[in-house]
Amino acid sequence: MPSVQPASGTLDTPAPAPPPVRTGATEAPRIVPRRRTGQWVAAALVLALLALAATSVVRNDAFQWDVVAGYFLTTAVLRGLGLTLWLTALVMVLGFALGTLLAAMRLSANPVLRSVAWGYVWLFRSMPILVQLLFWFNIGALYPHILGIKTVNLLGPLTVALIGLTLHEAAYAAEVVRGGILSVDRGQLEAAQSLGLSRWRRGLRIVLPQAMRSIVPPAGNMLIGTLKGTSIVSVIAVQDLLYSVQLVYHRTYQVIPLLLVATLWYVLITSLLSVGQHYLERHYARGAERTR
Amino acid sequence: MTAMVDIRSVTKSFGPVEVLRGIDLTVRTGEVTVVLGPSGSGKSTLLRTINHLEKVDSGQVSVDGALVGYRRSGNRLYELREREILKQRTHIGFVFQNFHLFPHLTVLENITEAPVSALKRSRKDAEATARRLLERVGLADKADAYPKQLSGGQQQRVAIARALALEPKLLLFDEPTSALDPELVGEVLDVIKDLAHQGTTMIVVTHEIGFAREVADTVVFMDEGRVVEQGPPSQVLDAPRHERTKSFLSKVL
Lengths: 292, 253
Description:
heterodimer; A: 292 residues; mainly alpha; MetI-like fold; two-stranded antiparallel ribbon; 11 helices; flat; B: 253 residues; alpha/beta; 6-stranded mixed beta sheet; 4-stranded antiparallel beta sheet; 28% strand
């Protein structure tokens, strides 16, 4: 086997090292990284494609960026955005509250509670959210009156949207919370029991904070999904962000620029939420690493 | 001396496996009992029945004169409410093989959690006690560290301080040094020895024969869910009567 350097000797015979070859300098040899030509080519190619796409967007007047700018902060759009935001928040809070309850039922010792929770998740995960919304929208056909009030009057489009989205959200939230709770080592619960901590204290102080580490990333995913997913309520004429811009373009036929208005708002809010998620994850990672 | 722990005819099965087959054991107040035995002999399960982490199938366990987990009425044992069981557990400290410190709480919070929430002590008092206990286990400077920042030996010493914070009448150790690197075993055993010399009543399940010889008042040898032999270390460790004890000791010594 040829040796790479005269000074290193061969690999398989432990021969005494020959005197080092003098190269003029006494310092250790410098390390030269391998050339990565392929990486440079790939990067250049991708940048070129991006530039091409960017110029086509800028040059194509049909995007009508001036119209986008003109509508971006109009009252109608902001009102739609407002509705989207609080609908998202409400669905998320109610969905996770119901989901946590379902997860607790699913993990309980009571076989009836366990089965009911399983059945709920099975049913609401099986139904497309659009189908469910339309179903709730037409619930009056099944129950014309609820508590003596006409169903149509009791359940307006917004209430229907809230119910449908929350029930759907809860099914997924239940699985996320259950996964989080299961990720906590069983020994934690035993230690808490041996110290005499009450059931509530064990759940809220010991298990849930540790479960949050596994819950936050998928919950953040769900929040972002829900933010955009609320746009589905436009089919039952709830004036969210999407429906608000649709109302405008049905009037003015400026379809693309107004869809861009909605898109930009969704992107903006999603970006803010991602930043929030980062800090939340850092908070719940307390004590998880050797270094703080 | 009076009996701190009184175990009578306790049996326990996990499915078809009989883990405890009629255990009788008495531990006197102020004494140290070391339980030895091969893995699967039931020694950890026995320890866990003493604070009702494991429910017995038959027989009964008493600590300081009170039945653990049950109330006797006539010839029936009624299981206690959870709150009453939790109260009993605050009198019985338990130290786990894998420490089970709460990783999201600091060392100080780990120790003060139970005194504050289960015994309703004031936070100030609980913290003062916790700092005193940390000093006692040689970790006064680690109060604000998180468990993962400590070595295994340090974590186990914190776990001991956490158990002591409830001022238990009885301390149970479930293989407290088995999860430690060899060079860290000594520091944990030193803390336990220190407690023994101060007259703490404890039951220690362990494989450390040297520790048993030095500290134990009584050594109990278990095998296949039964107590095979018990007595002072000089008898059980140096002049065992039963073949199984002899063969076990010849393997571990």
